[in-house]
Amino acid sequence: MGRILGFRQINDSLVTYRVLPAVHFSGDLVACAYTPKGELHVTLADATGHGLVAALNVIPIAEIFYDMTARGYPIEKIAIEMNHKIRKLMPRERFVAAVLLSVDKEKNTIHI
Q1: How many CA atoms does the CB half-sphere of 94 hold within 13 Å?
Q2: I need a labelling partner for 97 at 20 to 30 A (CA). Which of 50, 65, 71, 81 fits?
Q3: Of 4, 52, 5, 60, whose CA–CA distance to 32 is shortest?
């Protein structure tokens, strides 16, 4: 599942995480990546449902998150694109609740 979602390990003192092997697929996503300017973007997402159905909902979320972060987009634009993609692909009863944040160490700010 980590390979499907494009999981990338971050080695930074700001990020502490624990990955437990999952027996079943799930719709939970924790992702973090750096922008070209060095801002740390983080997203926590939870898709409705259980198992593979829920896991399928977070695949486009992860793809958008990593791609747009690598291009330096702000989290507001990333959230908008995530919303558009999920609304386009998924039935109405399927949704993803997510939070995005950006940490700028130079400016000493966190943007949620």
Answers
A1: 17
A2: 71
A3: 5
Residue for token pair 């599942």: 1
Q: How far is CA 44 from CA 31, 57, 58, 83, 106, in A?
A: 7, 13, 10, 14, 23
What lies within 8 Å, CB to CB, of 59 at 6+ separation is 4, 5
To which residue do tokens 């999920």 refer?
Answer: 86
Helix (H) or strand (E) holding 61, with range, is helix 51-70
Is residue 57 within 8 A of residue 48, CB to CB? The reply is yes
DSSP secondary structure code for residue 64 in this structure:
H
C-alpha closest to that of 38 among 7, 63, 14 = 14
Which domains, and CATH codes, for the chain?
2-111 (3.60.40.10)
pLDDT digits (tens, 9 = 90+) for 37-66: 999 999 988 887 766 666 777 888 889 999
Residue type, 66: Y
